[in-house]
Amino acid sequence: MAHHPIQHYDYLIIGSGAAGLLAAKRLADHGKVAIINKGDFSESNTYQAQGGIAGVSDDADSIESHIADTVAAGAGLCHEDVVREIISSGSRMIKELLELGTPFDSNEKGLHLTREGGHSQRRVAHAKDETGKVIGETLLSHVQQHKNITCLKRHTAIDLITSRRLGRHDGNNRCLGAYLLNPDGSIITISASHTILATGGSGKVYMYTSNPHAATGDGIAMAWRAGCAVMNLEFMQFHPTCLYHASAPTMLLTEALRGEGAHLIDHQGHRFVFDYDSRGELAPRDVVARAIDHHMKKYGRDCMFLDARPLGEEIITGHFPNIHKRLSKLGFDMLSQPIPIVPAAHYICGGVQTDSSGKTSVDNLYVIGESACTGLHGANRLASNSLLECLVMAEFCSNALIRQENQTQSMNLQTWDDSGIVPESERIQIKQNWDEIRATMSNYVGIVRSNERLRRARRRLDVIREEIATYYWKYPISRDLIELRNLSVVADLTIRSAQLRRESRGLHYSTDYPEKSDTAQDTILIPDQL
Ligand code: FAD
Ligand code: SIN
Fold it and tell me: The dihedral of CA 125, 126, 132, 137: what is its sign?
């Protein structure tokens, strides 16, 4: 296989969602940046975001109120210092996005703010129902114009290069760069003074998810293999309202629909969420998703329904034009009929343990955005706090790096060793293991868990991981093989984290431990200790 000469950058950014793009833009005035994406630059969770970005932009609102809502949703596990730091930066980040040209919706009073579950105020800035796309496009246009930034699409990061992995014991474990899979199948070795993982979430660990294909938890798995601790991975957030339809399995129906007045109803037209919580459809997501799951099981139904008819035509076609159009193409008319929905895996509240600037326990390695776990979300993320966290972390991370001097790389890196690769025979195991992991996680590690279900899941994952280990180093490397291995690591860590939490809190509900314990503790897994 062809090998390329080693390339050097001051900053290697893996992932081009909101977090990676803003970090690239800010760092480019201070050094040479490479930003990579394993697909096209529009392939990210960021581009799918509908509802908006939370931040205090109205005189009737306050930082204290946004903090209180975040902490209440987080079910006692938020790190309040981090919450304050990130939430206080909300209006500044929204202003910066506006200055960069993001076309948020506005009215005669200023920004048009929408509302979502768990928020006591209207405080979500949005661009109709495709906020993530316009933020992504705005940031990308700045990144593509900057002469110091090299954009590499369809390049998949395989693994990080660390001093420990190279056997160089010269003090702390250091990140030195990464191996990338080139679209032509060859391997590029990148040396970097600083590496930032901004690889997004891991929804694909589950069979039913709102996440696009790229969300396979690569950054979390790479950081884990490099020696980083992970935190609170048991808290996978299920979004209450994903479309129930075979040909559009990842389509989300934004929570802003409920914020503007849509109802959740059952097969008999009953607004059932009030049977479970007095806040009804606007209770935090964990509560609403559990209510839907419980109600579906109680009545043996495959789905429940979102009824947007109370919004009326002007709001539906004005605020939610894209959802309206997409549904129409699938044969649903939001104006005249309730839409079938199910909860689906949406956002991973846990991730690589970092501070608010993305600093990890491996020197020169930062993790920002959804892959990181700062403590902002606790046991359940408040809607639309994620884009905010991505951007604030990108800002804090770049400020921290700009303050440091770039050291030139002094270690000789090894290029990728592909001796021992056997010619491809068949790849059916990859598909088999991929489907098995996702089915196991959906059936045993979903909205409701139990000791027995987690034990079963763990046993299956042990077998699957062993199988992957037997063929990973034998087959020519490919994107699906890389993703499968990462998916298996994240699934395994999620199950281990869930087994350690002997209580029900936020997004983690166990029938064996239905109560919340008096003390709130993060679940932290450390590679050397497993
Ligand atoms: P992403 O935007 O996911 O970007 C990660 C990037 O890394 C991708 O480009 C991916 O291709 C790349 N990548 C991954 N692995 C590799 C690899 N091995 N090599 C190279 N590249 C790699 N949050 C809100 O705050 N408000 C909302 O309204 C909202 N709506 C949402 C709607 C949907 C349908 C979804 C799925 C999420 C929504 N979220 C929302 C959550 C939010 O969009 C994400 O948490 C956030 O965008 C994550 O940004 P990120 O930069 O961390 O990662
Ligand atoms: C949505 O629009 O419902 C998603 C918002 C979020 O996940 O923060």
Answer: negative
